[in-house]
Amino acid sequence: MYQILIVEDEDEAAGGLASLIERYGREHDAKFKVTRHRDASSFIKSKTSYDLVFMDIDLPGMSGMEAAGLMRAYDEETPLIFVTNLAQYAIRGYEVDALDFIVKPVSWYHFSMRMDKAMRAMRRHSATGRLKVSTRSGVRVIPTADVLYIDVSNHDLVYHICDEDEPLRVRGSLGKLEEELEGGPFLRISSGRLVNMDHVSSMRSGIVRLSNGEVLYASRARKREALDIFTDYLGGSI
Q: What is the mean pLDDT of residues 147-172?
């Protein structure tokens, strides 16, 4: 589930944006939790982490542009989209590395295009940084670099993690997880297994050796493509 923040003082504008996010989730089978701040200063003081921020520019007190500058002081990665009726200031968004901007009133067409772009950015960020895994006891955040590989067993996803004796088992779909990890170091080597290429020490004839000495096997149908992708990942040589 992606955590999305709306920073907007106008109730109607905030509600409309939340509705568009909800519609996008329904149409793209994505889950979002939406939080709202009515002013920028309360958001900055909270220093809460989000996966995506929609920020109005014309806010009471601290402007959205000022808040974005302060946000970037401690968060350089989170995608930021300005939602504003001040189109003349939107170009300044590049100063704070904004992903994009939308001019009010926000239409579904313009929102969905920006949201497609934001989803790609969020997936890259998730894939290269950390995984949020929902377990029975709550959400566990696992650094991507610590995951050796992920496979399927009896409809469970099984996460094999560095320096942990027992793998982590949770309910889930490998196909959906692969989509979320798109753009990262994970490679599908069989119908039921994703491997972290950063932990692959060698790949020959479908035999995949990991940094911890473990040996996995690519399926006959995927071993050629897997080798090509792994070669490209290493920069063209193995």
A: 93
